[in-house]
Specification:
Elements lengths: L7 E7 L6 H9 L6 E7 L6 H11 L3 E5 L5 H11 L4 E4 L5 E2 L4 H9 L6 E8 L5 E2 L5 H4 L9 E4 L17 H11 L5 E11 L9 H12 L4 H8 L4 H9 L7
Parallel strand pairs: 1-2, 1-4, 2-3, 6-9
Antiparallel strand pairs: 4-8, 5-9, 6-7, 6-8
Length: 251
């Protein structure tokens, strides 16, 4: 990584979140590491959110704001990617926060001399001490997603037009992560630190019935062998294969 280049882009999609957005932005502004930018992509809020964002943009040269109607959070995330100038991209929700003022500095030190594409850690659920969710392999990723608030994507992952599928209203990041884990050329790394405080009552949190339905939709789009492994996931054979062959090193 070139230390003279812009290391991190923090993308924050927003919509009618005036009451919470300052906490998210401040958690970045207060970082001990200064080589970053904040890109706020707003979906044409009407509650005063845009005015708050513009106050930050007027105060800090590293804060940029785009406000226009969009087609949901993944459309906003895609717009943020197209604006990003950093080597590494992290997505924060408007009601999320970086866990520590040292988060970016710690991550930078851990990855600056390595040639990874996909670096992820953990999140802690706001209002609790519960940490989610350790190392992942491809089998584990079929059951649960890595929070995007814990993932640093290198910008080259998006360089060839790869984007989040806006037709998947709440699962596009999960699909994107699965594709990354399916691709052996994408270099993945787990770092055992908490990246963000995650609000689990946000956009992607819905009823259990909704969650089951969304996962069924997503699995239909996955390769056949993944669907077979999931169907027979409780058998000893599949558990053994999962343990020893499906990205057992967790990238």
């Amino acid at each position: 990584m070139n230390e003279n280049s812009l290391s991190f882009t923090i993308i924050i999609p927003t919509y009618n979140c005036k009451k919470v957005i300052s906490d998210a932005i401040n958690s970045v502004v207060l970082q001990t590491f200064s080589n970053y930018e904040i890109v706020c992509v707003d979906g044409a809020s009407v509650d005063g959110t845009v005015e708050v964002l513009n106050e930050y943009a007027n105060k800090y040269s590293f804060v940029r704001v785009l406000s226009e109607p969009d087609s949901g959070i993944y459309d906003a995330m895609n717009k943020g990617v197209s604006m990003a100038e950093g080597d590494w991209i992290l997505f924060l929700g408007a009601d999320d926060k970086l866990y520590s003022k040292h988060t970016l500095e710690t991550v930078y030190r851990m990855i600056k001399s390595n040639n990874f594409d996909f670096v992820y850690g953990d999140v802690v659920l706001q209002g609790s001490t519960k940490i989610y969710d350790g190392r992942f392999n491809l089998f584990k990723l079929n059951f649960k997603n890595i929070c995007h608030q814990a993932i640093f994507y290198h910008n080259r992952l998006f360089a060839k037009g790869n984007t989040f599928d806006i037709d998947l209203r709440v699962n596009a990041d999960w699909e994107f992560n699965l594709k990354c884990f399916l691709d052996p050329t994408i270099r993945k790394k787990y770092i055992p630190i908490v990246i963000s405080e995650f609000n689990e009552t946000g956009t992607s949190s819905n009823t259990e019935d909704d969650i089951v339905h969304r996962r069924q939709q997503l699995r239909k789009r996955m390769p056949y062998w993944i669907r077979v492994f999931f169907k027979y996931r409780h058998t000893k054979f599949v558990r053994l294969i999962s343990r020893f062959f499906l990205n057992n090193r967790y990238a």
